[in-house]
UniProtKB/TrEMBL annotation:
Record protein name field: AD domain-containing protein
Entry superkingdom: Eukaryota
Signal sequence annotation: none
Species of origin: Strongylocentrotus purpuratus (Purple sea urchin)
InterPro entries: AD (IPR047574), Gemin6 (IPR009422), Gemin6_C (IPR046856), Gemin6_Sm-like_dom (IPR046857)
Coiled coil (UniProt feature): none
GO BP terms: spliceosomal complex assembly; spliceosomal snRNP assembly
Annotated Gene Ontology cellular component terms: nucleus; SMN complex
Residues annotated as domain AD: 85-183
Length: 183
């Protein structure tokens, strides 16, 4: 149970963190946190991503961003986390910087908002056609959720699926690939 300490600051214990599902992981992505580990070492930075299987966190130190584009990253193993203190809930501060970390200059151009909405609706209808219970979730309803077990993020491709269960993940990814082949 995350207990608020002061305004906009909350603490998630290690046990609570290990019980979180991918939808809850997504709620702390891009937030500024302080992570305490069993080694009594503290890490501070912005959460870039969380591995849903090992629950390891990639933490970026955006304040140490160098002009040449290099950004210090830390990997904190999930089993070593004793607690996470959310220091800043503003997810927009460094989102663009973090999202651009692993995108090269040759990356395909991003889709417009209209194209993303169209792709989401197309996938949603495809999943419903195959009797998969799907609903919109996330901030601004920009993601799709299947039975609160799997999340599909924009641009709604097989690699944009988040799920702890490998069997469900593989089947939904195959279904999305089949949609591309069918059209």
């Amino acid at each position: 149970m995350a207990a608020p300490m002061e305004e906009n600051v909350s603490v998630i214990t290690g046990d609570e963190f290990r019980q979180m599902d991918p939808i809850h992981f997504k709620s702390i992505i891009y937030k500024r946190v302080r992570i305490c580990a069993v080694t009594e070492y503290q890490y501070e930075g912005w959460i870039y991503t969380i591995d849903p299987v090992s629950q390891s966190i990639i933490l970026a130190q955006c304040e140490s961003h160098s002009p040449d584009g290099q950004l210090p990253l830390s990997v904190i193993m999930g089993h070593s986390i004793t607690d996470i203190t959310v220091l800043d809930n503003d997810t927009t501060k460094h989102k663009a910087l973090l999202d651009g970390l692993f995108k090269g200059d040759t990356q395909t151009q991003s889709l417009s908002a209209g194209e993303l909405a169209s792709q989401k609706e197309k996938l949603k209808e495809w999943l419903k056609l195959h009797r998969v219970p799907v609903k919109e979730c996330g901030e601004d309803n920009d993601s799709l959720s299947i039975s609160d077990v799997l999340v599909i993020e924009p641009p709604y491709e097989p690699d944009n699926c988040l799920c702890k269960n490998e069997i469900i993940l593989a089947r939904v990814q195959a279904l999305i690939r089949n949609m591309a082949d069918a059209t």
